Amino acid sequence: MSETEIVERTAVTGFPSPRRGGRLLAWGVLIGLLALASYGARLSDAGTPSDVLYLWSTFVGALIQYAIMFILILAIARGIRSPLLALRRPEALGRAALLATVAFGVILVTAGVLGQVLDAGDEQGLVPDAWDSSRAVPFVANALVVVLVAPFVEELLYRGLGMSLLLPFVGPLFSIGITGLAFGLAHGLVLGLPVLTIFGITLGWLRWKTDSVYPGMVVHGIFNGAALIAAVAV
């Protein structure tokens, strides 16, 4: 049965197809493993190096991690052309740009307000304390992963595949909430969980309003890049 037939069957009968249920289970297992690995690493870790983004090992490890995630996403979705990934152009680009601007503003305000009491960046330990020009090349390489690779893969996983699979079962509200919480949990933070969850929920709302993951990828990437610039510019 093709992906189009699966979507049509859901629309006609009002029930998700068994195949979509199996894919949702696979997605849930993947999300659970990511969360367990993140919290497990945080509990057993003696401390993240303050210069983690200046290390080539960070770059290589991140590429491997995101490559594995991307392969698993494609395996569950059955290919990059699957409509489950929501890799489609928003119908109204102007409206999408406006909504993306609103989403970015909400994320900035939320991060600023909650960051006064819940420092997610400090807890995560990725942002460097200062700029080190002698190690600019590995920093730029890691920055490209943070700004380009991470938003692409994570938006496909949560707002693309996750929301598409959840929508027939629980509707848009719970799909946005579940994927937002899953996004937060996958980062393995405690104090930063509320900030990351709201971040994910906001991007989930953007995905729902635009029917595309592209606006969320752009907002996600710009936010990550701004955070890096702000950290090293201080």
What oligomeric state do these chains adopt? single chain
Structural class: mainly alpha
Helix content: over 70%
Report the radius of gyration as a whole number of Å: 18 Å
Global mean pLDDT: 87
Distance between the termini: 55 Å
Query: Beta-sheet strand percentage?
Result: under 5%
Compressed to H and E, one letter per element, the order equals HHHHHHHH
Let me know the largest β-sheet.
Answer: none
Shape from CA axes? Answer: globular
Q: pLDDT below 50 for ≥5 consecutive residues: which ranges?
A: 1-14
Count of helical stretches: 8
Number of strand elements: 0
Q: What does it look like?
A:
- By secondary structure, the chain is mainly alpha-helical.
- It is built from 8 helices and no strands.
- It has helices at 3-13, 18-44, 56-77, 93-114, 120-124, 136-185, 193-210, 214-233.
- The longest helix has 50 residues, at 136-185.
Descriptive labels:
234 residues; mainly alpha; globular; disordered N terminus; 8 helices
What does the secondary structure layout of this molecule look like, with pairings?
Layout: H1 3-13, H2 18-44, H3 56-77, H4 93-114, H5 120-124, H6 136-185, H7 193-210, H8 214-233
Short description:
The chain has 234 residues and is mainly α.
